[in-house]
Please model this.
Amino acid sequence: MHLISFTEGNLTRIGRLEGTRIIDLSKANPKLPTSLVDLLNGGEDALQAAASSRSAPHFDLADVKLESPVPQPGKILAVGLNYRAHAVESGMPIPEHPVIFTKQNTSITGPYDPVHKPAETKMLDYEGELAFVIGKKCRRVPADKAPEVIAGYTINNDVSVRDWQLRGTPPQFTMGKSWDTHCPLGPALVVDEGLDPHRLQLRTLVNGEVRQDTNTNDLIFNCYEILAYLSTAFTLLPGDVVVTGTPAGVGMAMKPPSALSPGDKVRVELDQLGYIENEIIDEPADTTLF
Model:
């Protein structure tokens, strides 16, 4: 089941994606909530109702605006240096424990929305990643029980403002990773597809050029180990997003380094999950709010 959040007629709600057609769950089953977080809070019964709701498709994908599956998660938790080859290209030792940082939830944007290049950076970078979404309130979950609390999987680009991330010691991950629009997510939350999250091919392309091409079996800490580690410290809630790290091939590590510029298009593909694609644009003047 591919669950999406979409906007049509100035209303945002959830749907089930069937190829390029959308079943509007609020029409197929008016008892269901209109947000993905509320659906996850409804537990297994709500997910089963979403999966079993029968209806002719209501919209074509081309006729709606696809949003992030979780438009404003409570938490975005991220893992750094979580592919062996990426740690090597970064000149860093293989971590003994997951390297955790947060992205602010205002960084979320849709899977096909533009990504802003702020005037303050000369080194805007991409990081194609596998992400998962928490489906149940949980804490201290053993790794072997993690699949029971993961709602599903999706795709992320952990866009990074490197010159802000790397200024000072230690690195400033929050400031380098949390700019508005710097967390494209989607296109769908893939639930109950029988996929193995640790055997998916991940590719990132910039203007059609393949920059990253790695399998998730190269993760240092897999999804279940990450969840167990995070939930040791704090409670995870339905709709929280965990982005699991990027493989080798980031622009910063190229020789010479290659920054993203306005007009560039970044596409991140993951087998069985689809793709996201975002054009880089100069940050618009109307984003200033005071």
Remarks:
- The chain has two domains: 2-67, 76-287.
- The chain has a mean pLDDT of 96.
- The chain is about 15% helix and 35% strand.
- The helical segments are 25-28, 36-41, 43-52, 84-89, 162-165, 173-177, 223-233.
